[in-house]
Amino acid sequence: MSQYYIQIKDKEIPIQVRNYKNSNRVKIYFRENILHISKPTYFSKNHLIKMIKENEEKIYEEYLALWNKDNLNQKHWYTGEIFYYKGEPFEEQVFYQKGEKLAVRIDKQNKKLILYFPEKIKEEEKKKYGDKLVKKLLKQETKNMLETKLPEWAKKMNLAYNGYQVRDTVSKYGSCAFKTKMLYFSARLIMLAEREADAIIVHELAHLEQPNHQKPFYDLVKSYIPDYDEIHQELKKNQKRIMI
Ligand SMILES: [Zn+2]
Fold first, then answer.
1. pLDDT, tens digit, for every residue of 85-113?
2. Is there a single domain that holds both residue 126 and residue 148?
3. How far is the CA of 181 from the centre of ligand 1 (A)?
4. Ligand 1 center to residue 182 CA distance, Å?
5. 113 and 153 share one domain
């Protein structure tokens, strides 16, 4: 089945129409980002178009709300989208150029994430390559940060680890293998505020001594990060910020 769309203002809205023999009602509703329409078989296409026209404003508003919500969950690499770097909103700025150039850089001074794409790139490819470029950048930036922060905190806490790895994970910010004394961190750490990244680093280091999340563990963590609970709540609340 191919996907159909209706154009309302600046948006192409995907639709799915179902016919019901024994129905005498028309229902129009969104499920995910698709406009579902169920109608009696006898109800003609022209009637349907008329009905959609009459409800255009309402449909558009509902779709826009869904579209904005979706934008929190994933990036499309558009100019004006917001990208979090060290806990601060950076604005994306996208340039399309002749040739094959694909690149990304962070302009820390002006708080911008600058992306370069070939001018003829297709939307799906832009998403695919944009994600890939940004993930690579995040991994490198997170590694650079850990390079200094991890030994500093380990020294402060008087704990020793064997090594660490950075992986692109979003469900977990970090983990610790108690037996091997290896630490694992999410490449998205650099998107968080410094105090949040510190809390995660201290949390994982504390596991070298306390493998379980029990009172002695939290006592140890909070002796270095007194507002740990508050930061933990903040991280939960802002989880969507690390989605790309
Ligand atoms: Zn833990």
1. 999 999 999 999 998 899 999 999 999 99
2. no
3. 14
4. 13
5. no
